[in-house]
Amino acid sequence: GPAPAAGCDLSERAVGHHSAVLALRLGRRAETHGPEHVLDVWQELSAVSVPVYEPGAGRPAGTVTALTPLREDRAPHPGTALAEATALAVESELLGRARPPERVLLDAYLRHAPEGRAVVALDGSSRIVSSGAARLLSDETLTGLERRATALLRDAGAADGRRPREFPVPDGAGLVVRMTPVVHEGEVIGAVAVARPDPADGTAAAAARTPGRGGEERLPGLAGAS
């Protein structure tokens, strides 16, 4: 029989017993082969289905099914690994879409902040500051970055509103900052700013060794308001 077409009704009432329904009923991978499909539909097919679950809720969201021509042996279905990997990928995508914006911003910060880099994540109301950024950037500079992030959120709908921007640190520290928008579900929710020495300015190396404002080493951390 033919493989199901897009939009096909796969209820047991329409097509009889099949692996997708069985997988949902059992809560685990399930296979059906040829004559096990009770109705005439798919009598010449073998199928394996893996359930897909909603993130956090534990409710089934659907299944992933792999089909092959009917096999004479009873060996495990050759599409099992593909179905399981695809189901896992779908669950990972669902989990990513379900993350709150704050988690997305934190993940973006962590991706940019290995090995002591000077990184700040901002969303207009809070900021995450790495140890490198706390050492290199003054409070005034951090406030200026916050204003730029707020402007970036405001202008996100412009034609170039989602491109990274690069600009010098305005307090003469010999640094340049690359600010990259963070997008979640199609909307800009914040930005990650990475500071690095300006190759054209020799004062950057000295700035990198200078503690924060007031001569005291400032600690990295999270600051915000609501």
UniProtKB/TrEMBL annotation:
TM region(s), chain numbering: none
Organism this protein belongs to: Streptomyces botrytidirepellens
InterPro entries: GAF-like_dom_sf
Upper taxonomic lineage: Bacteria, Bacillati, Actinomycetota, Actinomycetes, Kitasatosporales
Region of interest (Disordered), residue spans: 199-226
Protein name: Regulator
Composition skew (Low complexity), residue ranges: 199-211
